[in-house]
Structures are given as C-alpha cells and as structure tokens.
Fold these 3 entries.
Entry 1:
Amino acid sequence: MSRVSKRRSSPSHSSSSERWLVSYADLITLLFALFVILYAMSQVDLAKFKKVSQSMKAAFDPNAKIKVGADQQTGGTSVNDPFLAENREFNRMQDELEQSMLTEMGTEQMPEQFSLLQDERGLIVRIGVKDFFLEGSAEVPDDLKPILLRIGKTINHFDKKIKVEGYTDLAENHSKGYPSGWELSTARAASVVRLWVQDLGFDPRRLSIGGYGHYQPLTDKTGEWLRSLNRRIEILVLRSGKPPTPSAAPSSASH
C-alpha cells in the first residue's frame, strides 16, 4: 500500500519542481519586450531631437550655415522647409564659389581683397577694388576680369537673381565723366554686368545694378588703408523674396 502511494505522488512532485521554468520564461519574455520598447523610444527621440535642433538653428540664427546630412532628412516638415532648403543651396553655392575662386587665383587662402559672406539678403562676394580699378575709372581692369568671369560662371548655374553694387571711397577723385561717387560706383557695377552678358551670355533679366557712392561705408575710421575698404564691388546673389537693399554696416566675413 505504501509503495502505491509513493508511486502516485511522484508525478505531482515532478510537476511542482519544474514550475519555476514557466515563471523564468515569462520574465525573460517581459525583459526582452521592455528592451525592445526602450530601443524604439530612443530612436524616435533621436529623430525628434535632430528636427528640433534644425528648427532652433533656423529660428535663432538665420545667417548660420546649416548643413543637413542624408540621415537627417527622415520626414517632418522642419527638414523639408523651403527656408532650410534655400539655406542648404546657398551654403553649397558659397562652398563652390570659394573653391572656384581659390583655384582661379592659385592660392589656398582667400586674399584680403576678397571675402564671402551671407546675410538676410543672400550671398555676397565682396571685392576691394582699390588695387584694381584706376582712380576715377569704371573700366574693368584686365587683372580683375578672370576672377570676375570665374565668379560669374559659378553663380550662373544657380537660378537666382543677382545684383551688382558699386561703392566708392570719400577720398577718391572723380574724373570729368563721373561728377560724383554715385555715377562712378554705378558705372563700375554696370561694367561687371556688361562683362557677364557679353562674355558669359547671362540673361539680363536676372541682373540689376546699384551705385551708392561713399554713403554706405564699411568703416568710418580714418587712415588710407581703412578708408580704402569702402571702395568695393559687391556681387549679391539674392534670396527668394528678399528686397535688394545695400549693406550699411560691416559684416563678419570668411577670408
């Protein structure tokens, strides 16, 4: 009788001793599900952070160069915003311009007479012309033509309107043909535009000019070299919907 009892109790004892395996399997399954959820949440947060970061840059520093990689273009209206898209286009244009100008001049660093910068109007190529244009002359000198043509070829690939602005120095003498700095600065800007139309086949409807004499200086400080900074040509590639107004104050530039 005792043997029968022992035999009957054996299956019950075996089932009880292996019950912990079920609980252990459930625990492992729950932990796996937890880590999957945490991983998914971290990926969503990373994508949101990238989009928010781009939006903050555009909102608080519209002049900053914003470069977005392919991994950041994953949906969302902020990355595909027209303003950000135009920023990327202008950044690419600036990089191409800088490289083509350095290649043309055969140097690795931009000379002090040339600078590239961006503001709310668009991309600006600033050229100090004191060492190029003769005093009181509006004729484009031969040593300036190659770099002007290289600049024109580069920006002509972008479907943007362009304005060329001329500025003079207060101390610059005017010839009989140019009674004031207005006429002289405007004539210099017109000479650049005419060169592009004649030699590069620019569409004249994309081009405009302006002359501001010595009334929009970069600096008011005295000294021949400092005053000569005001004698310049600025090639402005306009952003969409931005009115072409002159630059009235110095801007930070990369040489």
Entry 2:
Amino acid sequence: MGKGKKLKKYALVIGNSDYKNVGKLKNPTNDSIDIKNALESIGFSVVYGENLGLKEFRSKLREFYEKARNNDITLFYYAGHGLQYQNENYFVPIDADIKLESEISDETICFNRVESTFKEINSNLNIFILDSCRNNPFEDTLNSFSGRNINLSRGLTNTKIKTNTQTIIAYATEPDNIALDNEKERNGIFTKELLKYLKKPIKIEDIFKRTKKGVRENSDNSQIPWTVFNIEDDFYLNGKKEQEVIYKENLTSNNIDSNSLVWEDEDTGLIWQVYIKYKRYEWKDIQKCANKLNKKKYGGFNDWRVPTINELKTLIIKEPYENSESSSGEIYIKEPLLESMNMKYQWFWSSTEEEKDSSQAWAVVFNSGNDRWSTKSSSDYVRCVRGEQQDNTLVHLLNDEIPF
C-alpha cells in the first residue's frame, strides 16, 4: 500500500501547553509545530491547532472531518495533558476546569470521539499518536472536592480499537505509566525520537519500532513507548516509490541537491552514495554503476568508484536496527543509509577480489553484519563511494569484530 500512486494524506495535529487551571507544559507546542512541519514535508495536508480550549478543539475536529473525507491515510497527533478515567482516555483542553468526577466527560475530549470522527472520514489507514501520557493533572482537586480518594490510574489506558479500518495507536509510553518531561530540550523524549524517523521512506511499523528503541535507550528503560497495530497492508508515510522517483530525477538533473544524495562519514572521511537502485549485478558489471554516476555527475561529482572491502566494512555497526524488509529482521548499517536498505537480501559487492580464488570476490552482508566472499557470477547490490582510496589489503572480520 502506498507504493504505486501518490497518496492523499491528511493529519490533525494539536499541541496544548498553556493551561489555565493546571500546570503549564513546555514541550507540547514545540512538539506539535515540529510534527506539523515534518508531515507537510512528506506530502500531508495538515489541520493544525495549538493551545485549544474545549470549543476550539471540537471545531478543529469538525474542520478536519470536512477536509479529510475519503482519503488514503489520516493521522492524529496530540501532545499535552491527558488522563484516563473508567478505562477511557481523555485529552485536556487548556480551559478545562474539573472539580467533580461528573465533569470529566464535559470538560475534556474523549479519545472515542476522535476515533469515531476518523471512522466517518473513511480512509484506508488511521494513525493516532498520543504524546499525553502524564499524571492526571486534576487528581488533587478531585480528591479535595469529593472528600474521598478517587482511584485515578497514571498515564493513559490501552484503548481497544473499535473499528474495522486498519489502525495504529502509538502511545509515548506503556499503559498506566507516565512519560518523562524533557524541559531542558525543545522536544519531549518521545517526539524527539519520532522526528528522527517520521520522514524516512520505511514501513510505518519500522518508524515506531525505531522510535521505541531510541526512547528506551535514552531514558534508561524508564519510558517504553507502546504501539497497537491492526494493519494488513504495507504503508509508507514517505513512500519508497516516491523516493525512487526522486532518485531518478536527481540522477539526470543538472541542479542536484547534494545534501540529500550523498553522505560523508565523519569517521572515515569517505563520501557515500545514499540512494541506490534496487538492482543486482554480477561482479564483472559493478564498475558500470560508478560509470553511470560519474556520467550524470550524481551529487555533483564525477569521481565515484566501487568501494574496497575494508571501506565497505566501515559502514557496519555493532548493534542492529530493526528492519522488516530484511530476511533477518535486522540491519547492521550506519543510520544515514538506513532508508535505502529496503531489500530482503543485503549483500553488497566490494572491488576486492579473493586472493586465493579468482572466481570469488568480497562482499558485506548488512543483514548479518559480516563480510563474505561471493562467487563473481552471483548478483549482489552496489553502493559507490568517493574519496581517497584506503588500503585494499584484506583484513577479514570474525563474526564479533566490527571496524571503527
């Protein structure tokens, strides 16, 4: 899904920070602005609101419904105060003033209302991203006015999907837990990680898997995002097909944005081809790839070549990323090149021949993180490089050795 045509994509993005009756929050409006900009850059039409009161929140839902009907992908992003009550999740407008239990549903926006609106829009995929897993901001007030201890759980609850539409619900942290504040930085921890991957042309489930890994590592396992998937098709927020079109256009263009087509590895000083054709070559034909890049001045350069095995191995990392396209489900390549690795078998040729057998040449297998020899008549991928050629003397890696 999303690889054969230009998709109609709409998003409703809301960030609430300046609360009138409870504590203000630093990150949500920054988060919502940055999410809005990221989504617009990959083709989403965005209905945006920040610091919304109850009436304005309802008005934005209605506006979104009128604009987004019958499209391919709809996305809802909310950052701000949220709460759970009687196994339902609620978003808190900035003017909410809750002193009684009975006022919760009157003063907030129930997630069910948002979900029902999206159901009526009739899209192929609904995505809900909820960066609102905080303590109930009205808990002390409710207990004080009621004169009793009202049992209010932390964070948000794991809402059941109540529609047959393919749906993803992403929470900033696991159910009944709270997300960490990140007041020293512009973005909250969850949205900061999400922004790293939102624009990449990878499957949508991989966006959330990588976000989860980043949040978990950067919070020392104290915040673990939670995502519910009910999908059967492959979706790309930034379509892989569209990226291939961009590659082909840039390859033949005289006005090339070299920043998007090439990447300089600061560890080695080598400059790498970013976008590659999903085509495999026998070893005798690998130089054709470099010749074509040089003829078209890919990235503005005409000195591309096939890397040596030692150069190619500098792209291997120790800890793999998750990659649903890979045959192993993992990929051991540096992050700037991840988006171009949507293939099942990730063997890449080097220019280095096997010294003892002229019928063999060396390759790197990025879905296992190892180097291997391969028969020259085999068909593998090619990624070209430019820069001063490094030593071509073969230094073979054992399975647990990675060059740095």
Entry 3:
Amino acid sequence: MPLQLAPYHKGYYTKRRLYHVTTTRICQLPGTADQREPVALGDSANHNRSRHLPGIVGFYGYAGWGKTQAARFVTNSVDAAHIEIKKFWDKPMLFEELCGELGLRPKNRSVAHMGALIAGHLSVTQTPVIIDEFDIAVQRNWVDEIRGLYEASKAPFIIIGEDTLPGDLRRWERFHSRVREWVPAQPNDIEDCRTLVRLYGHPGVTIAEDLLTNLHAQSGGSARRICNNIDKVNEFAAENALNLVDCALWGENRFDTGDAPERSGYVASKSRRHK
C-alpha cells in the first residue's frame, strides 16, 4: 500500500524546485497545485515516450534535500511501487519487498521466480517503480538484476541516490546508458525555509527575518536541518516565554550545521595526558 503522507508533503513538494526531477518528456503529474510544474517522478511515462527510448530516470543529491519525501508523494499520487533499500537486505529480500509493493505472492524466495513474476506484472500494468537508496544496489552489485526487470517490462523506473550515484553507475554502462535523464535535487532556498516555518513553526512564535536568514544560511540548503533548527527556535522561545525571536535574542545559541561543536580545552588536556 502506498504510504499516507501528512498534508505538508503534499502541499510543499508539488511546488518545490527540488521536485523538478525530470521533464515533461518523461511524464507530467496531473492534479497538483500547479500543473505547469514539470514534476514528473512517475505517472504514465509510456504516454510521453516511445517504447524504444530509455525509461529510467535518475534523481540524485545530498542527504536531507527531500528526495525521499518527494518520492513518497509521487508514490501516492500515481500509485507507484516504491521501495527503499535497506543495508541489511539480501538480494531475495529486495525482490520480496518489490513483490509486496506490487501485491504479488511468490511461491518461494528464488530470485529467478520472483524476478519473472515482477517482470510479467510490470509488462502488463506499466506500474512506475521507484527505488530509493539505489547506492546500496550499486554497492551490492544488484544493478544488472534491476536492469533485467526494466528490460523485461519496459516499465518506467526511477532510481534515487546520493550525489555520487551518476558516476558510480558508470561501471554498469548497460544500465547507465538506459538512464534517459539525470536530474539533481536542488537545495532549499529562503522561500522554502519560510514555507517550512509556516508548517513546522510554533503558531505562537514568530521568527524574525534576520534570524530566519541566518537559520537558512546555517542549514546549508537541507530541509532536514532547517526543520531541526526551527525546532531549536521553538524550544528556545518556549523556555524563555517569547513570542518573537530575532538574532539579538538568539545570541550565541548554535544552529544545526552538521558540524559537532569543539570541546573547550580538549586539545590542551589531551596533550598533557600524553606528556
């Protein structure tokens, strides 16, 4: 069953630049807040491309930029089969999870059996398949097996991974050459930051523009860190009974930048211990 998302994901990612994961040549997602947006992670790729053209889309970028949440929204919108590969999976579990997403009941855990079942189903239904954490498939050498599913079905496939994914896949030229388009995720800009404040900020707390600008700059374009930092401001306001927080009030408090704070006096004390 597709995941049920909070209104945040549906309302936010339909308009995000990050969500421009391919072009209208691949597919156009109907029924969004702005149908002019070439949002397109899924929905009827075969309606917009000839069968002889590649049908794989690569969506890649840094952690925290919203790739997985965008994929989950598309999963709900177009009824795609969406799996997120886990590091502890083995190859049969990958195929089992995909069978589960497609509503298939394999008779055994044979990869050959499950692969034939999946490919046969996809060739008929043309269900879009979204595979997140594809970097793990690359590390485990599962790329050719997934290419086999695509080749046998010609269903649209969307692979999602970290920033190095396009380069890492060059080792598998037969797969890499079938990626019709590589689209980078985009960092969250200041307008995205304002949207996240409206959605995740405390209704009784206003974040002043100077602090909001600083928060966005310190978050490095990551939606995850922006949300963490909004929560930090919410907590600070609650602890100090404030309904408005600006840079002067925030003072020397730290935002989540991804860097661990240095321990005061650590180097000196360490050097003394080793004398």
